[in-house]
Amino acid sequence: xxxxxxxxxxxxxxxxxxxxxxxxxxxxxxxxxxxxxxxxxxxxxxxxxxxxxxxxxxxxxxxxxxxxxxxxxxxxxxxxxxxxxxxxxxxxxxxxxxxxxxxxxxxxxxxxxxxxxxxxxxxxxxx
Length: 127
Fold this sequence. Notes:
This protein has one domain. The chain is rod-shaped, with a radius of gyration of 51 Å. It has 3 helices and no strands. The longest helix is centred in the middle third of the chain and has 92 residues. By secondary structure, it is mainly alpha-helical.
């Protein structure tokens, strides 16, 4: 115990004890008020932030739905392109088969004969 308290009588010691307790009570009240203020600030912040977060999440959900719809559209388009390629492949194969079946030598002979006939007609029609 401190020497300054040794010379005090009981009444003075009780007064000191009460003053100490009052100071502790004051500090506790100040701390409680500060904590209450912090709690209120947090609640207000959450009240402001939560609706904004909900709007953001709804927008993100809408964007994801749009992306999913776009992917579905792309899948359909790829399916359509595949169908066109398959259909055109059959047509191209038929055309190539027909072109390959043409007798080029006979065609050349026919063109030469036509050329000779046109030359004869030309010579007959020229004065």
